[in-house]
Amino acid sequence: MTLQVQAEKLEVAAGESVLLPETSFTLQAPGLIALTGPNGAGKTTLLKTLAGRQLPSSGQCLIGNLTAYEFDPAFRAAVASLIDTPPMARDMTLNEQLMLVRLSWGDDDDEARFGAEQCLARLTIPHLGDRFPYELSSGQLQLFALALTLSRPFEVLLLDEPERHLDAERVVALLDVLDQHVDRGALIITATHRQEIIDRNTHRIHLVRDAGS
Ligand SMILES: Nc1ncnc2c1ncn2[C@@H]1O[C@H](COP(=O)(O)OP(=O)(O)OP(=O)(O)O)[C@@H](O)[C@H]1O
ABC transporter domain location, by residue (predicted)? Predict the structure, then answer.
């Protein structure tokens, strides 16, 4: 059966503040979905809720038949996300950290080494594998954060403005990598303000809200 991501009358509030007004949709894998809307519309909040990191105040969010909840191992196995900067080890090279992620998800040594190198190459930074995170520029750090996220298996990928700090050429490389994951059946939802990413998407969720609210 095709994997579905469903938001059913989803609303998130904190006290008197509404972080995400009532939102409903159904998305089917595979696909690349743009999540758009003005600043403060609720894009990050929606992604955190879909990632099972933020509990809704009402309604529900389902990935397949699983309620979004980050501490459920089955949910965690299906859903990867890059919403905040992921933890990075200061004293391990990029290759070592990417290998560690792959080994923890079941790769053997050779698969992990090859996968780490290939991932950096696809993201245009094959020459940085032996560097430490503090030796990277902001854009290179963002590419490494993406590499860490893409180094684990997933059926659903949630990205919050993955284009941040990236130049035009790097955005194209990232879109090519995301397309490869869509081609193998993944569903990717990405919050973005960049037109070239919106244009590349198969569908769009647009949250409407006053930026001042
Ligand atoms: N902890 C919080 N308490 C109260 N309100 C919050 C909290 N976090 C966010 N908000 C509010 O929730 C709304 C949605 O924020 P969110 O970060 O989801 O927006 P966004 O669409 O991702 O914005 P941007 O495009 O600027 O990244 C905003 O109006 C914001 O001010």
Answer: 5-213
Average pLDDT over every residue of 36-50: 96
Residue whose CB lies within 8 A of the most ligand 1 atoms, among 44, 46, 83, 213, for a mutation test: 44
Residue 29 CB neighbours (<10 A): 17
pTM > 0.90: yes or no: yes
Inter-helix orientation angle 94-104/138-150, to 10°: 20
Rounded Cα–Cα distance for residues 197 and 169 (Å): 12
**Looking at ligand 1, which residue's alpha carbon is closest to its atom 17?**
44
Least confident of 33-37, 77-81, 88-92, 206-210: 206-210
Instruction: Please check whether residue 36 is in contact with residue 198, taking contact to mean a CB–CB distance below 8 angstroms.
Output: yes
Query: How far from chain centre, in Å, is Cα 96?
Result: 21
List the residue whose alpha carbon is closest to atom 2 of ligand 1: 14
- The DSSP letter of residue 85 is P
Give CA–CA dist 80/151, Å, rounded: 10
CATH of domain 4-206: 3.40.50.300
Q: Which residue has a Cα nearest atom 16 of ligand 1?
A: 42
Ligand 1 atom having least distance to the Cα of 20:
14
Q: Tell me the average pLDDT of the chain.
A: 94
Q: Do 146 and 162 contact (CB within 8 A), yes or no?
A: yes
**What pLDDT shows up at residue 122?**
97
Task: Output the six-digit token pair for 184.
Answer: 């193998």
